[in-house]
Amino acid sequence: PPRSTPKPSSAASDVYKRQNKSLTWKGKGLIGVVHLQPLPGSPRYGGSMREVCNAAVADAQAYEEGGAQGIMIENFGDLPFTRGVVAPETVAAMAVVAESIRATGVELPCGFNVLRNDVSSAMALAASCGGAFVRVNVHTGAEEAAQAIIQGEAYTTMRKRATLCPEVGIWADVLVKHAVPIGDLGIEETARDTFHRGLADALIVSGVSTGAATEVDDLRRVKEACPEAPLLVGSGARTTNAPELLEYADGLIVASSLKLDGILTNPVDVKRVEELRKVMG
Predict the structure, then answer these.
(1) Side-chain half-sphere of 20: how many Cα atoms within 13 Å?
(2) What do you get for the CA distance between the two ends of the chain, in Å?
(3) What order do you get walking across the sheet with 142-145 strand by strand?
(4) pLDDT, tens digit, for every residue of 104-138?
(5) Cα gap 269→264, rounded to integer Å
(6) Cβ-count burial 54-64 (b if 16+ within 10 Å, e if not)
(7) What is the band of 25 on the pLDDT scale with cuts at 50, 70, 90?
(8) Would you tell me how many other CB atoms lie within 10 Å of the CB of residue 236?
(9) Which of 6, 32, 47, 187 could join 68 via S-S bond, C-beta 3.0 to 4.6 A?
(10) pLDDT at res. 277
(11) Which residues of 187-197 are buried (b: 16+ CB within 10 A; e: fewer)?
(12) Residue 274 pLDDT > 90, yes or no?
C-alpha cells in the first residue's frame, strides 16, 4: 500500500505559525516608525501631550497614505534611555498616543518599541491597545551600549507573552544598532540563537546606528543561517538601496529616509513613503 505522507514536525509547524502571526502582508512589507516627541517625565518634554499626539497622528496618516503595511510607535525622544523598565508615565503616554492614532481612523497594524529594551512594557501596550507586534532590541545574549550592559530576557519575555498577549509577534534584533556584542558569537550563531532558542517570530538586522545603512552581506548571512525566519531591515533603507536589501529581507522598518528633506527630526513626508513603496515592487 502507498505510504502515508509524513506529518510536519512540531518544530516546523511552530515556525509556520510564527511566520504567519508575525508577517501578515503580501509581498515585501514597509513598516513606518512613528518617532514620538519627548514624553512626560523625560528631560525635553515640551509640556503638551496634545502636541505629541498631533505629530504622531500626522506621521501615522502619512505612512498609511503612502502605502505602508504597518507602523511602529517608539519613544524616540526620551533621551537618555534607561536599560531597564521605563517609568509608568512613559507607558501611559504611549498608550494615549496609540489610541489617538486609532481614533483618527488609521487602520494599519501597529507595533511598539519601548527604548531601550523594555519589552515587558511594549507587550503591555500591545495587549491594551490592540498591537500586532513588539520590537526587542536585545532578546538573547548581552550587548554593551550607552546604557551600559543590556542583557536579553528571552525566558521572561516568551513566558509573559504566552499569558498576556499570545498573538503578538516578537520581532528581535540580531546585533542591534548603537551597541556592540559581548563575546564573539558571530552574526550567524546569534541569529540562530535568537530564532530557534529565543523563539523570536522575526529577525531584524540593522546598521551601526539610526539611519545607517544595513549591510547586504549581514542580511545574506542571517538569511542563510535561518532561511525559515522572516527577516526585516532595521535601519538605513532608502529608495537607492531598497531593491538590493530586499533580495534577502522580507520587509523594511524605516523612518529617517522618509522624513521631510530626509532630516530625522522632521515630519514624515508622504511623497517619500510613496517613492519607497514603488521601488519595493
Answers:
(1) 6
(2) 47
(3) 148-151, 142-145, 179-181
(4) 999 999 999 999 999 999 999 999 999 999 999 99
(5) 11
(6) ebbbbbbbbbb
(7) confident
(8) 22
(9) 32
(10) 97
(11) beebbbbbbee
(12) yes
204 φ/ψ angles, rounded to the nearest 5 degrees: -125, 130
Provide the whole-model pTM. Answer: 0.90
Q: Which residue has the cell 530564532?
A: 195
What would the mean pLDDT of 266-280 be, rounded to a whole number?
98
DSSP string, the chain: -PPPPPPPPHHHHHHHHHHHHH--SSSSEEEEEEEPPPPTTSTT--S-HHHHHHHHHHHHHHHHHHT-SEEEEE-TT-PSPPSSPPPHHHHHHHHHHHHHHHHTT--S-EEEE-TTT-HHHHHHHHHHHT--EEEES-SSSEEEETTEEEE--HHHHHHHHHHH-TTSEEEEESS-SSEEESS---HHHHHHIIIIIS--SEEEE--SSTTPPPPHHHHHHHHHH-TTS-EEE-S---TTTHHHHTTT-SEEEE-GGGBGGG-TTSPB-HHHHHHHHHHH-
Q: What average pLDDT does range 217-243 have in this prediction? A: 96
Residue identified by cell 534584533 is 173
Instruction: Kindly give the pairing relationship between strand 179-181 and strand 148-151.
Output: unpaired
Q: Of 86-95, 110-119, 142-151, 247-256, which gets the smallest average pLDDT?
A: 142-151
Q: What is the pLDDT of residue 213?
A: 87
Q: Residue 27 CB: number of other CB atoms within 10 A? A: 11
* Burial class of residue 165, CB neighbours in 10 A (0-12, 13-18, 19+): buried
Find out whether 277 and 66 touch, Cβ atoms under 8 Å. Answer: yes
